[in-house]
């Protein structure tokens, strides 16, 4: 997948003795990060070479020690959308080390060939890892990535349940429900209320009302479970899959007050250190900052994204 890039060729990018000593100390995983940076600098938000000894990241921070968490070869390609933060939240909850590359969707980096080689659908998130056979595995679609991560790395079932258990299948219910219902419907509510080039009240009403209905489904489930989570007695990938969408309730024009159990769930999960770190990867999570703002303020905030979305739709229509 990568061109031949060795310590010698990396050293040629810098001439100082300190630089060569730094490169010589790199582990194989850190050398891989250097390869990625060297061949795709224009498309990546990567750590500078002089910080490579600290870049086997946890929470995408240059200040994290190399051995902070469980060592992996995971590389996450994402941005701070409701779907994008699902995976970083899970990685933090599991305490895994990982590399992260911010994909600038405003510049259509996800449409570049190197990214399409990982995810042919040209959407985030995507993830690569070294599989059990020693070869790279490419993963895309957030639910698929989350299932892979818990199947392979959550051996103690911190945020999952054993295969074959009742709770395992109930978690699957809610993950698929989010992928097929909550995400698409709230995404369309966002589109018609924030990004459409003209106001189409029917579209706004249709998708906002359906999003409210889906919030009501979650409200009923949460009210029926004494733990306050969607399934069983702990937070699982079902909760993490839904959290980023519900956190954006204000952006899509929904009032959360009629859903007290859902509101409590939203803020309860936010207090989890793993979720709170993960939601801020690769950039600060701002959805909750929209709470309390007027519709006029929110519309103004959407202007730049509106232009980009319309341009992207026009480009896709020509293909």
Which architecture name of the largest domain does CATH use? Up-down Bundle
How does the major sheet shape up? Answer: 4 strands, mixed
The rounded distance between the terminal residues' Cα atoms is: 27 Å
Average pLDDT figure: 83
Low-confidence stretches: 1-67
Give the radius of gyration: 21 Å
CATH-defined topology of the largest domain = Glutathione S-transferase Yfyf (Class Pi), Chain A, domain 2
Strands of the biggest beta sheet: in what spatial order?
Answer: 2-1-3-4
Determine the strand fraction and express it as a percent band: 5-15%
Order of helices and strands: HHHEHEHEEHHHHHHHH
Oligomer state equals single chain
Our count of helices gives 13
**Number of structural domains:** 2
The total beta strand count reads 4
InterPro entries: Glutathione-S-Trfase_C-like, Glutathione-S-Trfase_C_sf, Glutathione_S-Trfase, Glutathione_S-Trfase_N, GST_C, Thioredoxin-like_sf
Domain GST C-terminal: 164-288
Protein name: Glutathione S-transferase
Biased composition (Basic and acidic residues): 287-297
Short note summarizing the structure:
By secondary structure, this protein is mainly alpha-helical. It is built from 13 helices and four strands. It has helices at residues 7-11, 17-24, 28-39, 84-94, 113-116, 142-153, 166-195, 201-224, 237-246, 260-270, 273-278, 295-301, 303-317, and strands spanning 75-78, 99-102, 126-130, 136-140.
């Amino acid at each position: 997948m990568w061109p031949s890039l060795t310590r010698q060729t990396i050293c040629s990018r810098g001439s100082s003795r300190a630089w060569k000593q730094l490169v010589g100390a790199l582990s194989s995983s850190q050398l891989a990060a250097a390869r990625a940076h060297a061949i795709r600098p224009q498309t990546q938000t990567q750590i500078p070479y002089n910080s490579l000894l600290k870049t086997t990241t946890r929470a995408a921070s240059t200040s994290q020690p190399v051995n902070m968490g469980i060592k992996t070869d995971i590389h996450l390609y994402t941005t701070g959308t409701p779907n994008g933060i699902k995976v970083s939240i899970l990685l933090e909850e599991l305490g895994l080390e990982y590399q992260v590359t911010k994909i600038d969707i405003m510049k259509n980096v996800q449409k570049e060939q190197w990214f399409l080689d990982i995810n042919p659908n040209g959407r985030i998130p995507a993830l690569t890892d070294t599989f059990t056979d020693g070869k790279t595995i490419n993963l895309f679609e957030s639910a698929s990535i989350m299932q892979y991560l818990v199947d392979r790395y959550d051996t103690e079932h911190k945020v999952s349940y054993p295969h074959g258990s009742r709770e395992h299948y109930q978690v699957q219910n809610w993950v698929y429900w989010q992928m097929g219902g909550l995400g698409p419907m709230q995404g369309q509510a966002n589109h018609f209320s924030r990004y459409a080039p003209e106001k189409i009240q029917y579209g706004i009403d249709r998708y906002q009302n359906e999003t409210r209905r889906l919030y009501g489904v979650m409200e009923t489930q949460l009210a029926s479970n004494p733990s306050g989570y969607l399934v069983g007695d702990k937070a699982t990938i079902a909760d993490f899959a839904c959290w980023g969408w519900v956190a954006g309730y204000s952006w899509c024009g929904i009032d959360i007050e009629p859903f007290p159990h859902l509101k409590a769930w939203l803020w309860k999960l936010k207090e989890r250190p793993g979720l709170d770190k993960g939601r801020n990867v690769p950039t600060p999570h701002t959805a909750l900052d929209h709470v309390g703002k007027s519709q006029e303020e929110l519309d103004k905030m959407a202007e730049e994204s509106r232009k980009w979305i319309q341009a992207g739709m026009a480009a896709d229509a020509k293909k």
